[in-house]
Design brief:
431 residues, alpha+beta, Outer membrane efflux proteins (OEP), four-stranded antiparallel beta sheet, 10 helices
């Protein structure tokens, strides 16, 4: 009759050893846990796919390509005008007097406008600067899409890792529940402890369900950025690992000023405004028109040949107003360049602060909090088994380990998202 309680005690000890071994193997080291099911998709492959298929990137590329044809149009001569004239004499009827009057004629001619020397070159230059700006805007649109893709990918990796961690800890909680039940059967515990363990299991299931909903939202966002159908296979992200930041703050700030596409787009717009000012100065000069006409008066009379040279006289009041407008636009473009540099530099500094702070926190988690919490849980588990400590302390230490594991993954996702923003701002690709 005494063998039955002994068997229960042995079973409890076995569960204790199993739970302790599992925690010794899978806590404190923070090795990424693989997501069950399909294999993980590398981020680099998704970036290539988005670059090739994202509608916004493709639209911006086509807008830039279209603008490259504008300089040739602006630098060309105005269209040549061909003319046919008819003059009748003595009657409105066609060809009246054509055979008996040397005033009636049929004329053929051509007319061509010639802008003042230098205007065509400046107009082509203005269009070329606009194309340069659109090129940088296309690059900026691409980086923005890739930045959103990376942010969604890192969040998806966090959510999927959180689900794996919750499932793992739920398994540990199941082992704890077996210990509590065995303690209750031998009269060392009470039913309330069993109910608390079951309640915590239900709460973990609730959190898993919420994370699965977030996983679905992030996958839908990724598929939209990739240009995929929403009914395409699910995306599994690779487990996150902390990447180093091999550049100093000064180096990154310099990269922002030199390589950020939004800043370079504003600089191209400033150059366009400067070219427009030069063109407006040139518009004070007159344009010319050359016209040549051949007039046939029938073979009985001599033909007429007429050459006409014309010149327009620019309205100087209008041109002065255009020049003032161009100068104001140039000044606005210069101020927008300064504002863009300051804004992007501040954004970089903010992301650097996030990256550096999260890196320090990850070190604290790895070297201090998580190993200490795991050791505390193992100690509490042994103390509870020996009836030296209550279940509430054991459950509290279990929740500490769970929360710290999730906080570590959250900080890791924040760190990688900050690095992704730094990549988008500076144009560098971190290893």
């Amino acid at each position: 009759m005494k063998a039955f309680p002994i068997l229960k005690i042995l079973a409890s000890v076995l569960v204790l050893l199993t739970t302790t071994i599992v925690y010794a193997q899978q806590t404190g080291t923070q090795e990424p846990m693989q997501h069950a099911g399909t294999s993980a998709t590398p981020l680099a492959g998704l970036i290539e796919e988005a670059t090739a298929n994202n509608p916004r990137i493709l639209a911006s590329v086509h807008a830039y390509k279209a603008s490259t044809h504008k300089p040739k149009q602006e630098g060309a001569l105005p269209d040549t005008q061909l003319m046919v004239q008819h003059l009748s004499v003595g009657s409105p009827r066609p060809f009246a007097g054509y055979t008996n009057s040397d005033f009636a004629y049929i004329g053929l001619g051509a007319s061509q406008e010639f802008p003042y020397p230098g205007k065509r070159k400046l107009r082509a230059e203005v269009a070329a600067r606009e194309a340069d700006s659109l090129k940088e805007q296309s690059e900026s649109a691409g980086r923005e899409v890739i930045g959103r893709l990376k942010a969604a990918y890192f969040q998806l990796a966090f959510v999927q890792q959180a689900i794996s961690l919750l499932q793992h800890h739920d398994g540990v909680l199941a082992n704890m529940e077996q210990i509590v039940e065995s303690q209750y059967r031998v009269g060392k515990g009470d039913q309330q402890e069993v109910l608390r363990a079951q309640l915590q299991h239900t709460r973990i299931l609730q959190v898993i369900a919420m994370n699965k909903r977030e996983e679905g939202r992030l996958e839908a966002q990724l598929k939209q950025l990739l240009g995929r159908s929403q009914d395409s296979p699910d995306i599994v992200a690779e487990p996150l690992r902390e990447r180093p930041l091999p550049y100093t703050s000064s180096q990154l700030l310099q990269m922002v000023k030199e390589q950020n596409p939004a800043i370079r787009s504003q600089q191209a717009m400033l150059r366009q405004a400067q070219s427009q000012v030069a063109l407006t100065h040139k518009e004070f000069r007159p344009d010319f028109n050359l016209q040549y006409m051949y007039q046939n008066t029938d073979r009985k009379f001599r033909d007429y040949y007429m050459l006409t040279f014309g010149m327009n006289l620019p309205n100087r009041g209008r041109r002065r107003a255009e020049l003032a407008e161009s100068l104001e636009k140039q000044e606005r473009a210069a101020r927008e360049v300064d504002a863009e540099i300051q804004g992007r530099s501040a954004e970089l500094q903010e992301q650097l602060s996030v990256a550096q702070t999260s890196s320090e926190q990850l070190k604290i988690y790895n070297e201090g909090l998580i190993p200490q919490a795991a050791a505390t849980f193992r100690s509490a588990l042994a103390a509870y088994q020996a009836n030296r400590q209550g279940f509430q302390t054991l459950l509290s230490s279990f929740l500490d380990v769970l929360d710290l594991d999730l906080q570590y993954q959250r900080n890791l996702a924040d760190h990688e998202s900050a690095l992704a923003q730094i990549e988008a701002l500076t144009g560098v690709t971190l290893p």
